[in-house]
Amino acid sequence: MNLLSGWALNLTDFTVIVAEQVYRDTKEAIFFKESLETYASTEPAFVKEITTLIKRLETFTKIYSNLSLRISIDAHVKYQMIDGYILSYELVDLEVYVLRLLPEKSN
Question: What superfamily would CATH give domain 13-102?
Answer without folding.
Answer: RelE-like (3.30.2310.20)
